[in-house]
Amino acid sequence: MSVTVETSTAVRQASQRGGLAEVAILAYPVVLQTLSDTLMQVVDSAIVGHLGATELGAVGFGGIWLWTMLCAFVGTATGVQTFVAQAFGAGDSRSCGRWVWQGLYALLPVVLVWFALVAILFAPLLRLLGPSPELQRLALEYARIRMLGMPAVVAAVVLTSFFRGLGDTRTPLAVTVVVNILNAAATYGFVFGRFGLPALGVAGAGVGTALAQWTYASVLLVVFLRGRAYAAYGAAPARPDLRAMARFARTSAPIGGQWILDMASFAVFSTILARMGNDQMAASQAMIQLLSLSFMQAYGISIASGVLVGRYVGRRDLEAAERSHRSSMTLGIALAAAVALLFLSVPVPLLRMFTDDSNVLALGRPLLALGAIFQLVDAVGIIAGGSLRGAGDTRWPFVVQTLLAWFARLPIVYVAAIVLEGGIFGAWLGELGYVIILGSAWLLRFRAGAWRTVRI
Fold first, then answer.
1. E strands within 147-251?
2. pLDDT 10s digits, 412-439
3. Residue 229: band (very low, low, confident or very high) from pLDDT cuts 50, 70, 90
4. Cα–Cα distance between 383 and 326 in angstroms, integer?
5. What is the predicted pLDDT for the residue at 224?
6. 298 neighbors 442 (Cβ within 8 angstroms)
7. 150 and 209 Cβ atoms separated by less than 8 Å
8. For the residues of 385-434, what is the DSSP string, one character each?
9. For residue 5, what pLDDT band results from cuts at 50, 70 and 90?
10. What distance lies between CA 375 and its chain's CA centroid?
11. Which of 60, 319, 368, 396 has the fewest CB atoms within 10 Å, measured from its CB?
12. Neighbours of 29 (CB within 10 A)
């Protein structure tokens, strides 16, 4: 009798590993955090949008190119999660903390040098890209201040990836909520000159965000050094280990390369839109911010999927890893469908959060109808990509996404927007075509099972 009960319990526990409930419990704080991160950008855009359409477009354009300059480091930093999750799954908890230090040693010196160069070259870059002179000037005002927060962003992602790798998704969420309140107050104050602060216009949005980024990184570092991680997971400061850093780079650098080359092609896509006019860029910025509501929740679920896939790969429980992927996909598609319904039901009120300009609203309404489909397809690719990263399968996705971003996305967008004269709607229709191809590639790659043989 006891053997039967024990067997039944073991079967039940096995069925729960990687199930929908486990994914949801791990994912919901990450989803809330990523939505909170998105809210920071949405608040900045909503506040600046009330200065005018050009100001809204400038923050979007400057922010996209600034993120392009940073995302290789951020993508690489997320690799800490894979190492922590697999070490934790394998029962080697004491080695988890050292991956934070090796990640910081590998990334921060390069980030500091890189952004010293970016500060010098950003203005010539904007002139080369060719948006209107006024949009260039405002984008530069915003970006120069935002650059001061870039090292903090990389450090924050390293630390956040550590907590997520352990399955602790609530600590980063709690810190994010507090920081978002700070960002909203500081951005509003510095943009419009409230609370005794100077009125800095678009530069004020950069000040508020940079302050928030440094606050987030600092608070998370204190929790890392003084919380239970210090003793249980080897969080004590470690010396640089060239062998560990090289191992980290082999797996994580392809993630960063994938991010930068994909984002660079998206920045070129945004430049095509910016050259169509300030109203077109403003409508696109509103569209991007609203899409991010779905993108970030899908990204949050992909993080949960990556954590669980990595954990079960570390335990060599590959069936639970695959089950985690399927459960994550189910949850992501359900949430994306809810956002699609929202886009189709109330497009104008959503757009009015950013602007009351009639031209921008007219351009934005059909974009949101297209966005309903776009974000549903995008969610599939994002979650499949997260599952691959959790398993350590990073090199094949890097090569494929690079090829698709530059040899599929840009030609399709150019033909749809310029050759066929589809304008801004045609450009986003071409972007949808690219997302369909990319998402299908990720999904088929995971289903093919090559990740089962990857070792990091």
1. none
2. 998 998 899 888 899 999 999 999 999 9
3. low
4. 10
5. 92
6. no
7. no
8. HHHHHHTT--HHHHHHHHHHIIIIIHHHHHIIIIIS--HHHHHHHHHHHH
9. very low
10. 14
11. 319
12. 20
Segment 251-258 shows an average pLDDT of 88
Cα 401 to Cα 6, 21, 253, 449: the distances in Å are 47, 31, 14, 18
Q: What is the pLDDT of residues 277-318, one digit of tens each?
A: 878 878 887 888 788 777 778 888 998 898 899 889 888 899
Max Cα distance, the chain (Å): 80
User: Is pLDDT at 14 greater than 70 in this prediction?
Assistant: no
Percent of the chain with pLDDT over 90: 38
What does the block give as tokens for 413? 């967008």
Which DSSP string corresponds to 63-89? HHHHHHHHHHHHHHHTHHHHHHHHHHH
Q: H helices then E strands: how many in the chain?
A: 18, 0
Q: Quick one: tokens of 161?
A: 């990836």
Structure tokens at 346: 């109330």
d(CA 50, CA 254) in angstroms, rounded, equals: 40
Angle among Cα 183, 186, 192 to the nearest 5 degrees reads 130
As a whole number of angstroms, the distance between CA 206 and CA 173 comes to 22
Neighbours of 130 (CB within 10 A): 12
What's the pLDDT tens digit per position in 105-133?
999 999 999 989 998 988 898 888 777 88
Q: Quote the radius of gyration of the chain (alpha carbons, Å).
A: 22
At residue 261, what is the residue type? L
Distances (CA, A) of 161 to 120, 158, 193: 31, 5, 36
Contact 193, 211 (CB under 8 A): no
**Predicted TM-score (pTM) of this structure:** 0.75
Question: d(Cα 87, Cα 79) in Å, to the nearest integer?
Answer: 13
Residues 204-216: what's their mean pLDDT?
92
Residues 252 and 80: their CA atoms lie apart, in Å, by 8
Question: Residue 161 and residue 168: Cα distance in Å, rounded?
Answer: 10
- Say if residue 133 is exposed, middle or buried (CB neighbours under 10 Å; 0-12, 13-18, 19+): exposed
Category of 454 on φ-ψ map: left (φ > 0), alpha (ψ -120 to 50) or beta: beta
Q: What is the distance, to the nearest Å, from the Cα of residue 455 to the centroid of all Cα atoms in its chain? A: 25
Task: Name the residue with tokens 């860029």.
Answer: 281
Q: Residue 397: CB partners within 8 Å, gap ≥ 6?
A: 254, 258, 385, 388, 389, 442, 445
Residue 269's φ and ψ, nearest 5 degrees, are: -55, -45
**What does the DSSP assignment read for 228-253?**
THHHHTT-S-----HHHHHHHHHHHH
The answer to whether the beta carbons of residues 17 and 307 sit under 8 Å apart is no
Q: Give the Å distances, CA to CA, from 152 to 15, 28, 225, 387, 412.
A: 41, 25, 17, 27, 36
CA distance 168 to 160: 9
